[in-house]
Each structure stands twice: as structure tokens, then as C-alpha cells.
Design goal:
Layout lengths: L1 E5 L3 H12 L3 E6 L10 E4 L2 H9 L2 H5 L7 E5 L5 E6 L14 E4 H12 L4 E4 L3 E6 L4 E5 L4 E4 L1 E4 L6 H6 L7 E14 L7 E7 L3 E7 L4 E9 L3 H6 L4 H12 L6 H8 L5 E9 L5 E2 L2 E3 L2 H4 L8 H18 L4 H20 L4 H6 L5 H16 L2 H8 L20
Parallel strand pairs: 1-2, 1-11, 2-7, 4-13, 11-18
Antiparallel strand pairs: 3-6, 4-5, 8-9, 9-10, 12-15, 12-16, 13-14, 14-15, 17-18
Helix pairs in contact: 1-4, 1-10, 2-10, 10-11
């Protein structure tokens, strides 16, 4: 088939990889003017690790892994009160930090290197709309041109425009948890180690620091807030977003001033509301959604990237298995993947998240005391090593003979 993918991120490129491997003619359009190989640190877990292995890309991924040995909860002086190490035993489940931590940009480049010779990429262009009938879908591009395809895939992220086009008008696809996040890079200093630092601030606020190379450190500001201002800030100009976050965290202690100062010169800055995408259908006719556009699980699931890789594999597998029956392929995609997608979304429990973001200093002190005792007794390590399932549960990747020789 002739297939158009809107969105050149992780899910879009993974899908392009499998579809091209199946012999389809694949075109990817990306609204950014170049490969969007930026972003913060992401991880692979459970079925996402297996999906990368089936692509034959684990070697390339291992070569780019970030050295993050664990997660420390620190006080205002920067002293670790509790540390949970990564589970590198090869069994059980990953802990708060995965054995497979990688920068989003590096994973995007790995996928692009694996697809650029077999897939047509067009940057600086987006799909503004489409028309379809039972035989074809006509995509209308931002440059005014149009083109016919057999299938249009919306892999255009959590804020997907194509999703809005196939859902009923006024339908809200988002399940919100009342948490917001911003992240950016600052210059690394000598005290920035390979353990991720987490610092809790009264008022349901949290600061994280993690370092991914010798010169850069990532900063994350996270907060609990249900206000309209917080939800709206993510659509404002970057300068206004930075003012908002600096104001919310001013005087928070630890290294806050360093992080706010570094915000102004960071190579990128990203602000988002933590939300999941929950919709009853992922396709309409010859248009189908993939990755975060279909089933965003949120960063707190720990399975966002893995979910996108798994979803791309299943969608391509069903299309390759039913090349002459697209309705059956898309129906099977939904039936097979939805239990997995809903399972990883269900891992996000707003009550547990709020426990990890206390409102008072007394509650923060209690959290650190309990967590410190648990780590002293090695409870998190034992739980991780002897767990029978990772965050994706016991759901198994389907086997598709057409994809085995990748």
C-alpha cells in the first residue's frame, strides 16, 4: 500500500520501519523543519525492550544509553535521604530508573538511520486535513498540495490534529491528573553525579536533576495544581511559560536559583500538563492513530515510549498480515493492543502520585523517613528483582511472520 504517516517522532518512525519492511511505500511528513532529535531522557521497559530487540536495534540503543545508576531523594542541603538503584539483575521489573535510559533525540536518530533509505521524509510540512472514501484517502498538506494514499496514520503526538478530525466535535480525549511539568537543560557542574536527584518542596512541588553527558544536566520542575492558569500556560509563548515556572518555584531552596538562571539560556524548554489520551476508537475509515495520538499513557506510567514502539509494531503487523483487508487490520490492531494500552494507563494512580508530592514539610519529612527506612532494608531492590511482571504486565507481543526477518 501507499501509506502516509503524519509525525516523525518515535512512534511514527518505528511504524515506518515496520511498514517499509513489509514492502509498503511509506511517506512521513513532519511539521518541524528538520528531524526533531531533541527532548529529555526517556526509558525502555518491558515489551518496549522486546520491540527494540525485534527491530534489531538494541546494539545501537545500548551504545547511546545514559549512565543513570539510580534515584536519590535529597533534602535542602542536597544530602541523600534515600536512594533506589536501577535493577540490573536481568530479571524482575525496572525500578524508578530503567536499565535502558536514553535521550529522546538519540532514539529518534537511531530510528531515522534505520529508515531513511527506505522511507520518504518531508520536513516542514503537516497534514491540514483530508477527504476519504472506501477506496482512498486524500491528504491536504500545509503547502497547499494534496496527494492520494491508501492509509493515513496520525502519529502526531498527544495534541494530535488528526485525532480531532476523527472524533465527535467537542469530545475531550484527555484524562488529567492535576500535575504539570517543565524541563530544560543547564550546564553541568562537578556535584552533578550519575544518580538522579529528587527534591520535594512544600505545596506539592518537586525538582529533579539528572545528567546525561559531561556538559549538560536536565532539570525538571513538577507541581500539583488544578488551576485554569496552570492548564493554559502550556499554550503560551515560551517566555511567559518560563516566567510562570520561575514564579511558582522562586525561593524553593536547594539549587533552585541555579536552575531558574539556566532556564534562560537552555537550548530548549518544554512545558506540559500530565494527561493521558483515552478514546474509544483509534481509526475511522482509512485514517488511524498511533502512539501518543491514540493512547498516550503519560510520563508517570514509565511506558510512554515503550507503548509507542509496541503500538507501531502491532499496527504494522496487522496491516502486513491483512494487506487486502484494511478494515480487518485496523479492527485487529484495536482488539489486540487495547488491553496493553489500557493496562499501562492503569498504572498511573493519582492518589499515589499525590503521596509522592506532599503539600507540607511535615509530610515531606515523613515520606523521606519511611523511604529511607525501606531502602536501608533493601525493600525496593527485592521488590524489583522478584516481581514477575514489569509495568506492561503479562501481555505479550504478537508474533507476525512477515516481520520476523527485520
Amino acid at each position: 500500500m501507499k501509506i502516509l504517516i503524519s509525525g516523525g517522532g518515535i512512534a511514527g518512525q518505528a511504524l515506518a520501519y515496520w511498514l517499509a519492511h513489509g514492502g509498503h511505500r511509506v511517506k512521513v511528513v513532519e511539521r518541524f523543519p528538520a528531524l526533531r532529535a531533541t527532548g529529555a531522557q526517556v526509558d525502555l521497559r518491558g515489551q518496549g525492550i522486546e520491540a527494540i530487540e525485534r527491530m534489531g536495534l538494541m546494539g545501537a540503543v545500548r551504545n547511546k544509553l545514559v549512565d543513570e545508576a539510580g534515584v536519590a531523594f535529597v533534602n535542602a542541603a542536597g544530602k541523600a535521604r534515600a536512594t533506589i538503584m536501577a535493577n540490573t539483575s536481568g530479571r524482575g521489573r525496572q525500578s524508578l530508573t530503567s536499565e535502558y535510559e536514553i535521550m529522546r533525540g538519540d532514539l529518534v536518530r537511531i530510528l531515522n538511520d534505520a529508515t531513511k533509505d527506505n522511507v520518504e521524509y518531508v520536513f516542514g510540512q503537516s497534514v491540514d486535513g483530508f477527504d476519504q472514501d472506501e477506496h482512498q484517502v486524500v491528504a491536504h498538506f500545509s503547502d497547499g498540495s494534496s496527494e492520494e494514499f491508501d492509509l493515513l496514520v496520525g502519529a502526531d503526538g498527544q495534541g494530535s490534529r488528526l485525532r480531532r478530525a476523527i472524533l465527535p466535535e467537542g469530545f475531550d480525549p484527555y484524562w488529567r491528573v492535576g500535575i504539570h511539568m517543565a524541563y530544560w537543560f543547564v550546564s553541568r557542574i562537578a556535584s552533578d553525579g550519575d544518580i538522579r536527584d529528587t527534591y520535594m518542596v512544600p505545596g506539592g512541588r518537586q525538582i529533579m536533576r539528572r545528567s546525561h553527558n559531561p556538559s549538560e544536566t536536565q532539570v525538571y520542575f513538577v507541581m500539583r495544581e488544578d488551576s485554569e492558569e496552570a492548564s493554559a500556560i502550556h499554550r503560551q509563548p515560551v517566555e511567559r511559560q518560563q516566567e510562570f515556572w520561575a514564579g511558582r518555584f522562586a525561593g524553593a531552596g536547594w539549587q533552585t536559583e541555579r536552575f531558574i538562571d539556566g532556564m534562560k539560556t537552555s537550548p530548549f524548554f518544554y512545558s506540559q500538563e500530565i494527561a493521558q489520551v483515552r478514546i474509544d476508537t483509534w481509526s475511522k475509515g482509512r485514517v488511524v492513530l498511533a502512539g501518543d495520538a491514540a493512547h498516550c499513557a503519560s510520563p508517570y506510567s514509565g511506558m510512554g515510549v515503550s507503548g509507542g514502539l509496541v503500538g507501531a509494531y502491532v499496527l504494522a503487523g496487522e496491516i502486513n498480515q491483512h494487506p487486502d483487508d484494511l478494515p480487518a487490520a485496523l479492527a485487529n490492531y484495536d482488539t489486540k493492543l487495547r488491553p496493553f494500552a489500557e493496562g499501562i494507563q492503569g498504572q498511573v494512580n493519582p492518589r499515589l502520585l499525590r503521596l509522592g508530592m506532599p503539600m507540607t514539610q511535615r509530610a515531606i519529612d515523613a515520606f523521606l523517613t519511611v523511604t529511607g527506612l525501606a531502602t536501608a532494608l533493601h525493600i525496593p531492590d527485592l521488590v524489583a528483582r522478584f516481581s514477575k511482571e514489569d509495568r506492561g504486565g503479562d501481555w505479550r507481543l504478537p508474533d507476525y511472520p512477515q516481520l520476523q526477518a527485520a
